[in-house]
Design goal:
The protein is an alpha/beta fold. It has helices spanning about 10-20, 25-35, 50-70, 95-105, 125-130, 145-150, 170-175, 175-185, 200-210; strands at about 40-45, 85-90, 115-120, 140, 160-165, 190-195, 215-220. It has one domain (about 10-70, about 80-220): P-loop containing nucleotide triphosphate hydrolases (Rossmann fold). The chain is built from nine helices and seven strands. The two termini are about 30 Å apart. The structure holds adenosine-5'-diphosphate (ADP) and magnesium ion (MG). Adenosine-5'-diphosphate binds near residues 25, 47, 50 and 52. This is Superfamily II DNA/RNA helicase. One of its GO terms (molecular function) is ATP binding.
Length: about 220
């Protein structure tokens, strides 16, 4: 299996080559076609197995297709307000930065520039509010600060088409279950859900079952 046979666009293949990824990892090989097809995904794979690109590459491809379609339909070029289409929840500030950098790098060759917003707590909220003016295509956030921004009407999640829970086990270990629940209430019911975790405790399983609809299961023996 190569990245090309997984159905990625030439621009994304360039980005992959620039990062010197020669072959897709196992989780990438399984997740990329499913995410491209719009399926929910539950992936259990160890740290370092390439989970970020497993969701970022296919989601970038779909965002690119959406933008091309908007252009064909003659949406106003001048309208700069972007709607959040992809929301990635991460447990820590450090991880929000890492995922943000990876997504920015992988998006680097796309013909239309995407706006990626990285949001985290433990830093002043005002610059993040300013950055979100005009919207964003992709938001990567820790749960608590996202709720603060939602309470301040700094962004809307009404147009999110894909939710990613990255490092779901750590999100739960850090006590974010209630925050995640409150965020879910603000998302459209009809959406794609992608769930990535390195471990699979009963709490992780419960969250996955509550969130996912007929997911493609990767490295999972039994989710029932
Ligand atoms: P995980 O989220 O599963 O812990 P990451 O997405 O952070 O893993 O990736 C771990 C490392 O592997 C990163 O340095 C990333 O750039 C690299 N990587 C990801 N995919 C590939 C690939 N297909 N080939 C080589 N390196 C890769
Ligand atoms: Mg990861």
């Amino acid at each position: 299996m190569t990245f090309a046979t997984l159905g990625l666009s030439p621009e994304l293949l360039l980005a992959v080559a620039a990062r010197q990824y020669t072959l897709p990892t196992a989780v990438q090989t399984e997740a990329i076609p499913a995410v491209l097809a719009g399926q929910d995904v539950m992936a259990l794979a160890q740290t370092g197995s390439g989970k970020t690109a497993a969701f970022a590459l296919p989601l970038l491809q779909r965002l690119q297709q959406d933008m091309e379609q908007d252009r064909e339909e003659g949406s106003k070029e001048g309208s700069k307000q972007r709607k959040v289409k992809v929301l990635v929840l991460v447990p820590t500030r450090e991880l929000s930065g890492q995922v943000g950098q990876t997504i920015e790098a992988l998006a680097g060759h796309l013909p239309k520039k995407l706006k990626v917003a990285v949001i985290y707590g433990g830093a002043s909220i005002n610059p993040q509010m300013m950055h979100l003016r005009g919207g964003a295509d992709v938001v990567i956030s820790t749960p608590g600060r996202l709720l603060d921004l939602l309470d301040n009407n700094a962004l809307s999640l009404q147009h999110v088409s894909t939710l990613v829970l990255d490092e779901a086990d750590r999100l739960l270990d850090l006590g974010f279950a209630d925050e995640i629940k409150r965020i879910l209430e603000q998302l459209p019911a009809q959406r794609q859900n992608l769930f990535f975790s390195a471990t699979f405790s009963p709490a992780v399983k419960k969250l996955a079952l509550a969130l996912l609809h007929e997911p493609k299961r990767i490295a999972i023996e039994d989710l029932t």
